[in-house]
Design brief:
heterodimer, A: 346 residues, mainly alpha, two-stranded antiparallel ribbon, 66% helix, 2% strand, B: 118 residues, Methane Monooxygenase Hydroxylase, Chain G, domain 1, flat
Chain lengths: 346, 118
Amino acid sequence: MSGNLSVGWFVLISVIKILIAVPILLGIVAYTVWLERKLVGHIQNRWGPSRVGPFGLLQPIADGLKLFFKEDLTPPYVHKALYLLAPILSLTLALTSIAVIPVGGWVTIRGARIPLQITDVNVALLIILGITSMGVYGVALAGWSSNSKYSLLGSLRASAQMVSYEVALGLSLVGVLILSGTFSLRGIVEHQLGGFWNWNIFGGGQIVAFFIYLCAAYAETNRIPFDLPEAETELVAGYHTEYSSMKFAMFFMSEYANMVTVACLASVLFLGGWSGPLFGPPVLQALLPVFWFFLRVLFFLFLYIWVRGTLPRFRYDQLMAFSWKFLLPLAIANVIITSLVVALRS
Amino acid sequence: MPQNYVPIFLFVAVVAIAIPATLMIGKLVRPNNPEKAKLMPYECGIDPVDNARGRYTVRFYIVAILFVVFDVETIFLFPWAVQYRALGLFGLVEMLVFLAILIVGYVWIWKKGALEWV
């Protein structure tokens, strides 16, 4: 792809892309929080944030500043190094997984074709899975290093839940891999271009896999109805009970950044990524795919919030049984059926 | 291409510098007046009893072990799925045998009650 670029240009372009992508991601994270509070407010017949700026639009900035200026307490009984490492690790991993997500096709600037993606590697899906499963370390370290009962219980629950749903999540992707024959997220999207009947969820018949993926993804990001690790009525705040100020904000941001990653991945794997009608002048044609992509991501974020406003929380034994006794056999059946159908078709 | 991995490391570097930097800058502006009650473990106002790192149920260990088994299985399925069309009928039969062995194990752990959360 960038074989015609010199090393200096390659690094420069990469750094520019990173410096554009990280603030955009943090902005999306901040406004997802606003959207969530606003939508859940309306679902519950309240107004949600409405005081800071028009429609409460400046609320995330006010919250961020508030957290920045709060006292950051490091209690004396914690394991200091791990206590500090946990939020940094969580947020770094949560942000890094966006590096391989393709948000659009190619743009040509001065004769150089540049993909709308920080980097296009051929094992992108494996990298994302690796990075997101590392996220469990942040949670486990936070709970253990805090040396508090609520934190430890919360992190144990979170770790067990995340590893249980990791299995179903991984198996739900096998069908997509059979259909597209590549780990590259760009390749997977390019396989689905040309109309919604080509998307993996419809044309590939991966609608069951999509359901498994969504359930597992909600559980991986600790969202309602799987938010047992943070069940406020039982565990105060779960694994980040003892955290305050910016360190608390980091866990908060990493949770929402993970939601965004999961939404991006769902669009890429099942809903055709950036595919959509293209028209107009060349500039518009280059930007429309990005718009279609973000529309899908917004849809998934809306779905997250809608589900949160609608469903109650599971009990812990139901949560475990749902993963091991329902999603896992369903995912294995999906793998077998998909492989048989593909074999019969070819 | 190997050079395509470089931006991922650049990304980690940028983020791993920016986050501690934020914490350091925050240290200059935020107040710091700890006191005895603030520094106690948070247990809703009750004085903590006993060590926080107590014993917990063995179920969590069982889940961890099962996770290793099934996640390794998933990792085996990934390269097979990507090369599915190239492997042809042989690949399909091979993987069905693999899955059959796995399903036998799965039924066994279900019957043993390892999946029950009592």
